[in-house]
Fold each of these.
Amino acid sequence: MWLTLQRAGVRPSDLEDALQEVFVVVHRRLPSYDPSSKITSWLFGISVKVAAQFRRRAHLRREHSVEELPEQQSSNRHSPEQIALDLEARQRLVRVLDTLEPRLRAVFVMFEIDGMSCSEIAAQLDVPVGTVHSRLHTARKAFAAAAQREHLRGEGRTR
């Protein structure tokens, strides 16, 4: 569930709270669980919904806590300019991923970043492989469009 929350876009500083919220929802809804369906799919659905709630609330916060300062996260071999460029690239990636609908984002991250196969994703989500292919195709198109918008927005700032 931790990975699902990460893949669905919950900020690292909110992961513990989101995971706790998932367990609260599971406890509250356990009597309504249908044992004929896979529990992993049921938990995935709850996790994605909780992640969506946390992502909607995230825009209300102005501060972003980090465990380490960006300078401490990078190797001393990199120049300050390279450290700043790397940090900016990570922030752009997060902004682009944040535009994806949680179910699409999860499949996209599982395939493109975590390196899982479509059959592994299908088994984890308890959906047909064709559904994974469809979501991945849709997510890639949405990602490309959002990346293009982010690129154009970045060019507007540098002019």
Amino acid sequence: MNPNWPSNVLCPVDFSEPSAAALRFAADLAAKTHAGLTLVHASFLSAPPYFTEAQLADLSRQYKDSLNEADRALQAFAVRVCPGCSASRAILDMRPVDAILKIAREKGSDLVVMGTHGRSGFNRFLLGSVAERILRESTIPIVTVRAAADSAAGARSIQKILCPVNDSPTAKYALQKAARLAAALGAELTALYVVEPHESERRPDLCEWLSESERQACRVQHIVEAGDAADRILNTAQRMSADLLVVGAQHHLFADSTVLGTTTVRVVRHSPIPVLTVVNPPHSARA
């Protein structure tokens, strides 16, 4: 595992309040961890099929001007939201999801921080469609930030990190990432082992999942809760006044798309505090 994690933070910006909250979080985190910061904004225009060549040429000129204006707006947005932060910018003529994944590959980003739009739905809250797709398609850890939690969303204010785990390699990988982040931020790390109703209670030695240096840098508490995993995770986070949740997510192939586990989706959708979702560890096979 890269000892300098994260080394490059990518933050998509759509000029909304949730993306402002994400940018504040990303800028604080990058400064704390001495990571690079990249801002990306995507805009995609598809001309109607009935446009003439002259209309297409005129539209192309106007669209090029709009992209230049978008770059100026992105610079101004960054100055207003996080004065003094240092970040590179990228404006892409692509659909947002494609642009985010492309820039992440090109920049070697190892963490994405993005705002989420809470919306009413059959499952209480739904993330914005871009955030949902990035969570499904990206292999890079992702922090989702809600605008409502912005007052406590800055990385400087992260003092307590909660990482729910089970016996899977993904959970162990997530705990290792949480330990690295806790050490960099000077935060307290709590590992939560939830015993599901159909399981027998046991207390694994969570500290053995971390290297010696990680154990020394972070305080790992053992909490074993019984009950529904998502409910227990969210309730424990509220009870301990956690500032960040770190959850492991296993990508599963379903038909021609990728899905995440039910517990992970419920936690990300319902959490009022930022959530770092860590997907399958490197070289792991998808189920």
Amino acid sequence: MTYYTDLFSPETYEAFSRSKRDVTGFRIRQETWAKRIQVGDKLICYMTRLGRWVGVLEVVEPYKIDDAPLFYTDNDPFVVRFLVKPVVWLDKDLTVPIRERLVWDKLTFTKGARPDTSTWTGKLRTSLNHLDDADGEFLERLLVAQQDSVSTYPVDDEKFRRLISKPVRRYDKIVTVTVPDDNDDFEEAPNAVEPAVRESHQMQGLLASIGETMGFRIWLPKQDRTAVLAKWTPKIPDGLLATLPLNYDETTLKTIEQIDVLWLKGRSIVRAFEVEHTTAVYSGILRMADLLALQPNMDIRLHIVAPEARKEKVFTEIRRPVFSLLDRGPLSEYCTFISYDSLEELADIPHLRHMKENVLDEYAEEPE
């Protein structure tokens, strides 16, 4: 018997709570990981955005591909499905915060880590990550005991309501969106903007260095080059492109040229990155959406890079209605989040030059 993660958003937590709780589902891209799950394995369930452990599910049968609407009324994305039985499933006010000291100081991937960094989030970037036996056994005991506990961790209903995405029908399918509340914004400290800008240049330089190491040529916006080149020196003469070798209309080219970092192979853009350091985390997301609107058939992986503390703000913005109703499809299906800490972790991988660029996806997080 082995333990794995099963991530729920607030809306899927509520949907599963209302259901018979006998089926859990994952996206088709996770089928490869699903193949290793055996009958009797246990899924330790974690609610994102709220940061809480919510239950334990035991796998009853091997996975099946089933696209019959279950979690969504149509175009259900969670088609890799396991029949499960709940060992424990907690009501919202009994769910256990991961930052509770009795949990934080016990788990192998959080113990000793600072809660305000993302160095500990690797296990919780995606579902079906393997958990150490000690962590799985501890969490199962904790959650089973919590079922009958007098200890509660009350959730503010208004805050929880704001975390839940709303379904909207597109012409082709139903998508979930969020409408940011004015209370979700905050004021930047008067002297905080300039240091953040400098840090963003450092991240642009790190992205350029990683891309060049993996064999890509790099594009940086011309207005950023002086600052970024103070932190990154190309190792090959044409590592940094002077002009983009792309055959697009002027409007598209002007949009692409402003994106913070591009990785190119030949005449094709492979990855595009926006490093967000502003309060609204909005300008880079707008550029990504503009690019998809101008070139809906362009096959590019898009990433927003920002501090871990900005992750939920990024996800909230990506799920805005205006970005969820693009002709190509919701921006949330094409754009992922990478934290500064995760980027630094990626840069430290030995033999990075011999790895394929899809290793980046192991460090990217999606808005569920």
Amino acid sequence: MSSGDPVDPVREMIDEYVKLVRDELRHRWQKWATTLTELEKYEGIGGLLARQVTLATQLAGTPSIWNPHLAPVILRTMVDTHITLAWILLDPLPRSRQFVLYGLGQNKLYVEHLKAWGEREGNDVADVVKALESWQDEQRFTFLTEVNLGSWAEMNTRKMAEECGELDLYNLTYLPFSAATHSMWHHIARLNLIRCGSPLHRHHRVPVDADLPSDADYLYRAAKFVDGSFAKFDAALAIHSDVPSAFQALGRHLENFGREEEGPVTDVSSEQLS
């Protein structure tokens, strides 16, 4: 952007948030002393924390999805990731290993399904299978990997949330966001159906693909979830972060928008977000 171009305050807010939250992730990783005999712990927890940041930054960079159609799908994944991370942090090494081994088992299961499909349909999947098996063998030989067809934690998400002190988060966010993720009736009835205007048709509902305005409250929620995951990480592993908080910086931006608009702090107009 040239020096003469006007500053886009929303884009400036997004860019600052993405930079700061990535700095927070990097800083925490650098402060966590690695023990090479416990790689599953570092890789499992580090990967989950990075996944949380990725979900937030990808949502942040796409204001067109800050709406009830798509944002809840990402936010539900973020809540799921947070609960998984928080539960693992209660007993990091064995639970991280359990998490990693379950994932490897799912990869093995997919490879077997892929082989069977290739043979049945006459499709050449040898290169894909080789790549997937090579990736797996780097961590644990395929023939030694067990496949678990149940839940990786041997309990449901609600029980995990209860054990790690996140039951309110589960009840107030995971459940409603699941409605969007699974396209349940109480989601699509509100957002993908409208009433017919004819009394002769009993005002039945008809399908609609409605364009909805962007709402920065979804960005705020994503940032709050990341900040909560950072807090769980710091508390469990005695990490002290002294870098600027991305969540706090975002909050200041949104407060400024709220004062300018004389409305809710998270109310950013769709014109600003386009």
